[in-house]
# Entry
Amino acid sequence: MKKYILSFVLFISIAFRSFADEGMWLPLLLGKQVYNDMVKKGLKLTNAQLYNINKASLKDAIIIFGGGCTGEIVSAQGLIFTNHHCGYDAIANASTVEHNYLRDGFYARNKEEEIKSALSVQFLLRIDDVTKEVMDSLQGLSGADRVKKQNAVLASINKRMSDSEKNIETRVSALFKGNQFLAFVYQRYYDIRLVGAPPESVGKFGGDTDNWEWPRHTGDFSIFRVYTKPDGSPAKSGESTEGNIPMKPKWYLPVSLKPLKNGDFSMIWGYPGGTNRYESSYGIQLATDINNPTLVKLRDARLKYMFEEMKKDPAIKLQLASSYASIANYWKFYDGETKQLLKYDIYGKKKAAEAQFNKWSKGKPEYENLFADWAKAYDEWRPYAKQRMFINEGIFGSPLMGFASSLMQLENLLLKTGATQAEIKKAADAANAQRKAFMEEENIISDRNIVGTVSRMFYEGVEKDQQPVGFYGNLKQTYGALDDDATYKKYAADIFSKTMILDDAKWNAFIANPDAVTLQNDPAYYYASTFARNYTSKYASKYSQFTSQNAEYGRLYLKGIMEMDPAKAKMMYPDATFTMRVSYGSVKNYSPRDAVLYDYVTTSKGILEKYKPGDYEFDLPAKQIELLKAKDFGQYIDPVRKDLVVNFITTNDITGGNSGSPVINGRGELIGLAFDGNYEALSHKLAFDKDLNRTICVDIRYVLWCIDKLGGAKNIINELKLMK
# Structure
């Protein structure tokens, strides 16, 4: 086993790719061949300057920002750059109707004006290979037993390698579908303060219309700062921040003002969230036939009702903005993913590769029945896949029903023999705290419309024998025909008018003296628990069995591929797992279709062409329009274009989680922030397109122009190390 692991790591280390700029590489395992390829394309830094656990290196400037983004340290005082949409919640939470920083933007003129947030960031300390320890513990196990044991072993390693006193957290990541295991050791910092953000009209310019599209003209950035105790150590969660000082980082990125050229080297560091490039043909088919179309249809309904209310009132827009943006982002993504997977016949290409594997596997007991067993696992789950999507994206896509379902824990305790009053009070207090957070974000009108619509969609879209027994029969008897929208509207109106969850007096009375009967009779709880129990009692175990089987077959397939084709193994890189990765490529234009050639940059000219006064997506501050028309670009002007470059594109391989990632030139200087991908290559989670894949980035010169010229925050500019 040890020999196999060493050989496997060697294959990854010396990887020589046939796909242009494909790969999210582990900085620990770049290897000589990959590093030399980076140097050939324009990298000027040494390997030790990229990743070193004993000395400061570039990896020390790259952070996990919040719960799902990337950020970078850009000054000797712990200043962070990331995307506007990554800082969105913090900006919204700092805003009020009177001081609407989301709408108007915000820049601290000094450190005293910086606003505390609930955010945390994590710095990677080191990466340790724990493959042998994990593999030794899993010998002879398969299926659910293997998954259970693996989870226990990883939890044990995480605990052993963590230190809560120092805010050190370890998370072992299973790579190559469980054929390799690396422990990523982080240190978390809790004192993170908002320093600056452009107006939302700048940070989200183009809105949903331009989302995932090129050309783009979006100023997707925000600015924060890390604070530490005076001795440089991180404050603990909830600890007083009085006396904390700006962090003195191990490494920070200088900022380039140099013009970009087509073909310039670019690398992107960050935390890509998840890909599944080694997915089977069965998985591709399930995604294109059922999962993606169902998700898109259900999110479309939710977005429609939210948007209707957001247009009516600035306060509602502020209330729903973060949730709406999150839902909309991947609504469009999965729509585009399906189209690209079908357009390029990824299913057919997977089938062809699997046919080769099946031919090779004959006579090899470990592999020869793999695809027959895998097909059976998918055949057994496929009939229930749509129902699961309807539950997650439809029924519990309603904020009210999502909260109501959480009360099932309290009900279980109320029905539990021997439960103490102290236990019940603790659960009730927790529910009360959750309700407070829920009510702050709840918009009753949009949510009521969502419940009515998805109730009908579930009835019409899910097999009748999978629906909650008696639910729709009772609905018909009480409210009317099941093919009439009025029926579902009346039912939803009844739920929202009668539930104690939305009535402070009734809720407070219940929390003061909780009892199971009152909870069970609540119409919102009845609705949520009915659908939840129907799924958990009949289908959750089927899904659990399917996922464990799918994981096991995926692991064996990848292991077999390496044995079958060592040359292909040399070109393999691990799927993204929200662990630190580096990708490299170049600034580059592209041609998406016949007679169309997209330039590699956009400029302020394009902003003025798209600008629509008062428009929901394409409005801009009057000051910005004045400055752009006057060509007041200052030191940020592009000397070649004689204009302000706004966005640019590269061939780098990224995915969700890379939002906010630094785009870095060959000298280790920041040239932009990655924030999106192009629509023509939205299949990238499952299949990388070597010709059309582009990463969309906000040019750092536009970021600095927004801070300096538009925002007047020269103090922030003065803190940076500018490379001219």
Remarks:
- Confidence is low (pLDDT under 50) at residues 1-19.
- The domain at 581-723 is CATH 2.40.10 (Thrombin, subunit H).
